[in-house]
Design a protein that fits this description.
The chain is of the alpha/beta class. It has three domains: 125 residues, 2-Layer Sandwich (Chitobiase, domain 2); 299 residues, Glycosidases (TIM Barrel, Alpha-Beta Barrel), CATH 3.20.20.80; 226 residues, no CATH class. Helix content is 45%, strand content 11%. It contains 23 helices and 20 strands. The strands form six sheets. It has a six-stranded mixed sheet with strand order 3-2-4-6-5-8, with helices on one face. A four-stranded parallel sheet has the order 9-20-19-16, with helices on one face. Strands 10-11-13-15 form a four-stranded parallel sheet. Helix 2 packs across helix 21, helix 10 packs parallel to helix 11 and helix 15 packs across helix 16.
């Protein structure tokens, strides 16, 4: 019977899904109307406040009963038992489990320490957590730090870590298991040994540059992170950024870095930091670099490693990715690697365990540059750990037209051709490890979203990281980490003996949408994962990040901020330096499609880059259509969710709706600009009238989409935010777009018709 029950449940879910698949489904407008009415409006930055005070855990499902093949933690009378010499982070993990059990599961436990845990196998009503040396015979299969074993019995749970860090992650995995089960139940026969697949996993903050409140730090080990990287563009001792890049980075508050290191350590979270330096190779410059390293390492002995990113640690002349011009790239690499060697030498004199992570991001990563990128691996000192960019530069083809990823993206799994060449070369040497910057749940491809619901595509990347034997990961950049179910999936997959992918996703779906909705959610996630595979936009600019708030220009608008078009100052240079377009000063200038109003250049064609506009638009529409196929069943899953889960289910669906809006708006803006240009160049009155009709219809559709997107953003303060620039778009920004559309429809196009006799 125990085997039949899950099969019957799966069959029931499948039959329910079939009944929904056969229906037309709820439209986006119908669903959004119901969802928006049920969700409260959030103020900007509300999500930061939520993470500062701590998000409440998913509550226990009161309808969930313990199965005959399960054991449960009773509402009272249980204890969490630690060894008497348990470390502070392990103690904190026990406190987090206690907190979770009380707040989410309605279970009250106490924490106690024991001098001798030799009787661990006979204790009753306990959760025992300790390193293997304290639990004789329990941890023989554990091999390295962060490994753990969980053994459940009728009246006990034992968490045995290779070390205290392993026991810590075992306790957090208990929270994950209880959360998925929606009750403090485990299989009676549970006996799992989980080996950590990565030496380190670190994110950047998803709240702000140096914003790491305690309750936010507490979420990191729950999601499998054991380190953070900060403050990326300033030396930890508050040394300034280096010219000509990142000179305006604000200083840390006095003592902030030491305070962060201390607070993070409570949760078992280490700190990685940058070293920034303008290296020239001259004797005085070399000595100054040695002093900078000695001073930093001496002041911050707790820092686990240093990232030497070419955005701030460079030789002679800084250049953007691929922007080295006629400079001999290999000569630059040799000198840069000498500077890396100096950092490693000085740091290791003080502490040989410090990790030095050279990251040559700015070197050209196009597929044609495999030899140059591999050359870096031949020059780096062997006592460093190369940090390789995983997917950037990965080549792909659409209808015979070739492109490559210009920035962090998930439409291609990776690794890029250049990264493959680097990994092949690195394996010939004796580096202690190879790490990678690899997105695993969010990406700059849609950098204004807290996570991207493409679990099957993400899982393919997780497999690729393992297949290419990546030892450690930096998993976010400017969009940072915010707790979410895709990051939860990643946490499971970062250790061995994880549940099969579909089984894990079904549990997540059941928790998020309720019993019976599992197959609907999985069908949606498969569609979404297929959609991103054909999404053509891989750049860091407006399309995938700001399209739903980006304006559509019919005519050049009046300036809304200072201009210098008639000054001695060059307007183009001033705009580039200030990042401001005075005609739309609501976002950085690169985050809008700004037409050439002389009509000499096709800015839409320039944006689509590798691909012709028709091919780009074809695949952009295909991605949006595939998203819609998934949304049809996703909406049904949310509408069928129990009342207690409906609000959170609505938010899940609205995030996916917003992703599709982004794709549709990007398509619309490109199409509108192509029509605007055709209108300006056409001499045929009938063709021009037809174009105006089409443009009017497109603007009407885009207005409707913008109104919906504005209301979704009002109810989810995470949307539109990435902390390099705070909000890229806000509901008010979208409102300005709507006003422009209204003016274009009511005034600009009618005036054009009159002027042109159309």
């Amino acid at each position: 019977m125990d085997l039949v029950r899950p099969l019957l449940a799966t069959l029931f879910s499948f039959l329910m899904a079939l009944s929904v698949f056969s229906q037309t489904g709820t439209t986006s407008a119908e669903f959004t109307g119901r969802a928006l009415a049920a969700l409260p409006v959030e103020e900007p930055f509300e999500f930061i406040h939520q993470h500062t005070v701590g998000l409440p855990p998913k509550p226990r499902d009161p309808a969930t009963a313990v199965h005959p093949d399960e054991m449960g933690v009773a509402p009272a009378g249980w204890r969490i038992v630690l060894a008497s010499d348990a470390s502070a982070p392990l103690e904190t993990a026990a406190q987090e489990l206690l907190r979770f059990l009380k707040e989410a599961m309605g279970v009250v436990v106490a924490i106690e320490r024991a001098g001798d845990l030799g009787d661990w196998a006979t204790r009753k009503n306990v959760i025992v957590a300790a390193r293997r040396g304290s639990l004789s015979g329990c941890g023989d299969a554990l091999k390295a730090s962060k490994d753990y074993r969980i053994v459940a019995g009728p009246d006990r749970i034992v968490v045995c870590g290779y070390d205290d860090r392993g026991a810590l992650f075992g306790l957090y995995n208990l929270i994950m298991r209880f959360s998925l089960r929606e009750a403090p139940f485990l299989p009676k026969a549970l006996d799992t040994v989980r080996h950590s697949k990565f030496r380190v996993r670190m994110p950047l903050s998803g709240l702000g540059w140096m914003e790491w409140p305690d309750r936010y730090l507490a979420t990191l080990p729950l999601y499998g992170f054991d380190a953070i990287h900060c403050s990326i563009y300033r030396n930890p001792n508050n040394g300034p950024g280096v010219a000509p890049y990142w000179e305006d980075i604000k200083a840390h508050k006095p003592g902030a870095m030491k305070d962060l290191i201390r607070r993070a350590a409570r949760f078992g979270v280490d700190v990685y930091a940058p070293i920034l330096y303008h290296y020239t190779g001259e004797p005085e410059n070399v000595e100054e670099l040695r002093k900078v390293v000695r001073d930093i390492v001496t002041e911050f002995p707790e820092i686990r490693g240093y990232v030497l990113l070419t955005e701030g640690f460079y030789y002679k002349k800084w250049f953007g990715a691929g922007g080295h011009g006629s400079q001999d790239l290999r000569a630059w690499v040799r000198e840069w690697c000498k500077a890396v060697g100096i950092v490693a030498e000085e740091a290791h004199k003080i502490n040989p365990a410090i990790e030095i992570l050279p990251w040559e991001y700015n070197l050209d990563f196009r597929p044609t540059q495999t030899e140059n990128k591999a050359y870096v691996m031949t020059q780096l000192p062997e006592d460093t750990i190369p940090l390789l960019t995983f997917e950037n530069g990965k080549g792909f083809e659409l209808d015979g037209q070739k492109g490559w990823l210009r920035d962090y993206a998930i439409n291609q799994v990776g690794p890029a051709e250049v990264t493959q060449a680097q990994l092949t070369e690195a394996r010939k040497r004796r580096f202690p490890a190879v790490y990678s910057k690899a997105d695993t749940f969010a990406s700059w491809q849609f950098g204004t979203f807290p996570y991207l619901p493409f679990p099957y595509q993400w899982h393919a990347r997780y497999r690729a990281l393992e297949e290419w034997r990546i030892d450690g990961t930096l998993e976010t950049w400017s969009y940072g980490f915010k707790p979410n179910w895709v990051a939860e999936l990643r946490a499971w997959c970062a250790w061995g003996d994880a549940p099969p992918l579909d089984a894990l996703l079904r549990q997540i779906a059941r928790r998020e949408f309720g019993p019976g909705q599992e197959e609907l959610a999985l069908a949606a996630w498969k569609s979404f994962s297929e959609a991103i595979q054909v999404y053509p936009d891989t750049g860091p600019n407006w399309g995938s990040n700001n399209a739903l708030a980006a304006p559509l220009f019919f005519e050049k608008p009046k300036p809304r901020a200072m201009t210098v078009e008639h000054s001695w100052t060059d307007q183009a240079i001033w705009s580039r330096v200030s990042q401001l377009n005075p005609y739309w000063p609501l976002v950085p200038a690169r985050l809008i499609l700004w037409p050439d109003f002389t009509n000499q250049r096709d800015r839409a064609a320039a944006y689509t880059s590798f691909f012709t506009v028709p091919v780009f638009q074809k695949y952009l529409a295909l991605a949006a259509d595939r998203m819609e196929e998934g949304l049809k069943v996703y909406r049904q899953a949310a509408l069928r969710a129990p009342e207690s889960r409906r609000r959170s289910a609505y938010r899940e669906v609205l995030l996916a709706e917003q992703l599709q809006h982004m794709m549709r708006s990007e398509h619309a803006i490109i199409e509108f600009e192509e029509m605007r240009l055709a209108l300006a160049r056409s001499k045929d009155p009938q063709e021009r009238r037809d174009l105006l009709v089409r443009m009017t219809g497109l603007l009407g559709d885009e207005r409707e989409r913008a109104v919906t997107a504005r209301e979704i953003a009002r109810r989810d303060s995470r949307l539109g935010y990435e902390w390099e620039q705070d909000y890229i778009y806000t509901p008010d920004t979208i409102d300005e777009k709507i006003k422009l559309i209204d003016d274009t429809l009511a005034r600009q196009i009618p005036a054009f018709r009159r002027q042109q006799g159309l």
